[in-house]
Design goal:
Blueprint: E1 2-7, E2 11-15, H1 35-44, E3 53-57, E4 62-65, E5 69-77, E6 80-82, E7 85-86, E8 92-95, E9 100-103, E10 108-116, E11 150-152, E12 177-184, H2 193-201, E13 204-210, E14 214-218, E15 229-234, E16 239-241, E17 249-251, E18 258-261, E19 263-267, H3 272-276, E20 283-288, H4 291-313, H5 320-332, E21 337-348, E22 351-362
Parallel strand pairs: 12-20
Antiparallel strand pairs: 1-4, 1-11, 2-3, 3-10, 4-9, 5-8, 5-10, 6-7, 6-9, 12-19, 13-14, 13-20, 14-17, 15-18, 16-17, 16-19, 21-22
Length: about 375
């Protein structure tokens, strides 16, 4: 089977990297708020980075496992525990059937992610498994998870190669003040020089009006040339809208597809996960970077993820000393020398088997 939700927590949804290609119809992209944490969770359990995960906001759920499965919990520290014992974040962990995963507090960050090896049995709607809460589309019946919900695993695993190495360094969410890098535009010409200077040199406070759609901030007023209204145009994840009141609003994962307020800048992709983990009351600064700099940072992160996935999913060759011992022993006995070639998981008629393979190194006959 999979998991049974005992308690859904505050806001627990199914998300992947988003529903692309439908904004022209008014359908939001949605997807995870913290793309870095979700990607790493999937890599640690051997999934593609676009595989659906469970996104947890602030107060987490309680769920019971009805089948063995390898998971990884990443993102904020929301007090994950298995049968009451703390779970190490950013590590692949085997959960046995009958065990319960719960979240018991908020110790840093505001959103956590759970990836499941082989993925969750959630239908693909318009190319994505993400939950669009406003449209009630995707995910689990288009809504947040609640008591009594059950989700099956598509291809659960109880073993993965390099299990001991499936770990990643813990991020720090202890700061109360953060800098977000931005690319200016597309309507930065609608602001006075004073307004641009205010935006880039002021400290803004995240207000209580912060959800999956947007993050409203409070601080020094950003001066427009002729007001904050424009002809409606497209909105992207990270767009910084500045209405006539002069305070910035950063558009998040469930942002609307179009908007009629001036956009002074866009938070770069690699910094959006920082904002996703922030809480109301935290302080924000904006720093200008170029498009080339933003792209270089994005490519560097992508290369890091690709390298990690390749390392964790590449079978290990036997060590040279192991081969040497096997060859020496076989030579003395005038037999064929064999060494271990690795342990692999295979599936036959829906059942999982671990198979240990050997390969012939040299013959002495």
């Amino acid at each position: 089977m999979g998991i049974q939700i005992i308690n859904g927590g505050f806001l627990t949804t199914i998300q992947d990297m988003g529903r692309y290609g439908y904004q022209e119809t008014g359908m939001s992209v949605s997807g995870v708020m913290d793309t870095r944490a979700a990607s790493l969770a999937n890599i640690l359990v051997g999934n593609d980075t676009n595989e659906a995960v469970i996104e947890i906001t602030m107060m987490g759920p309680t769920m019971k496992f009805t089948e063995d499965e390898i998971i990884a919990v990443t993102g904020g520290d929301l007090g994950a525990k298995i049968d009451g014992k703390p779970v190490e974040r950013y590590r692949a962990v085997l959960v046995k059937a009958g065990q319960t995963l719960s979240f018991m507090g908020m110790y840093g960050g505001s959103r956590a992610y759970i990836a499941f090896a082989g993925g969750l049995d959630i239908p693909v709607v318009m190319g994505s498994r993400s939950t669009n809460l406003k449209s009630k589309v995707g995910g689990y019946e288009g809504r947040k998870l609640g008591t009594g919900d059950e989700i099956a695993f598509r291809a659960p695993a109880s073993w993965l190669p390099h299990m001991a190495e499936r770990v990643y360094g813990l991020p720090s969410y202890g700061a109360k003040e953060w800098t977000l890098r931005v690319v200016m535009g597309p309507q930065d010409d609608c602001f006075t020089d004073k307004g641009i200077n205010t935006f880039l040199n002021s400290t803004y406070t995240i207000s209580n009006e912060y959800d999956r759609m947007g993050c409203r901030m409070e601080g020094d007023v950003i001066e427009h040339k002729n007001g904050g209204d424009i002809i409606t145009d497209g909105i992207s994840f990270g767009a910084v809208q500045v209405p006539s009141h002069g305070n910035p609003i950063v558009m998040m994962a469930d942002h609307q597809t179009t908007g009629g307020y001036t956009k002074i800048a866009n938070v770069i992709s690699v910094d959006l996960p920082v904002l996703a983990q922030c809480m109301p009351g935290m302080k924000i600064h904006f720093e200008k970077v170029t498009v080339d700099e933003a792209q270089a940072l994005y490519c560097k992160e992508k290369e890091e993820f690709d390298a990690l996935a390749k390392r964790l999913n590449t079978p290990v060759e036997p060590a040279d000393d192991e081969q040497a011992v096997a060859i020496a022993a076989a030579s003395e006995a005038n037999k064929t020398a064999w060494v271990k070639a690795g342990t692999y998981k295979i599936s036959v008629n829906g059942k999982e088997f671990l198979v240990e393979l050997e390969k012939e190194v040299v013959r002495f006959r």
